[in-house]
Design a protein that fits this description.
Largest sheet: 2 strands, antiparallel
Order of helices and strands: HEHE
Number of helices: 2
Strand content: 15-25%
Structural class: alpha+beta
Shape: globular
Distance between the termini: 36 Å
Strand order of the largest sheet: 1-2
Mean pLDDT: 80
Helix content: 10-25%
């Protein structure tokens, strides 16, 4: 995975904990390209992957953070 520039691969629990530690709340898992927020929908580039591979190997979490 380092050949792609990755330094760490998160699982859902580790990423959610990191988000909460950074001040995010209401951390929710979504399917790629899905969100309640239109600006966060359809951001994936699935054309460069075999069908369904991106959803298999990727994780999308969304959280809220209070300004301040």
């Amino acid at each position: 995975f380092r050949l792609w520039g990755h330094q760490f691969i998160y699982d859902e629990a580790t990423l959610a904990d990191a988000m909460r530690a950074a001040g995010f709340s209401s951390v929710t898992r979504w399917l790629l390209d899905d969100s309640d927020h239109s600006d966060l929908q359809n951001l994936g580039n699935e054309q460069r992957y075999p069908e369904a591979l991106l959803n298999f190997e990727s994780l999308a979490l969304e959280g809220c953070k209070q300004e301040g």
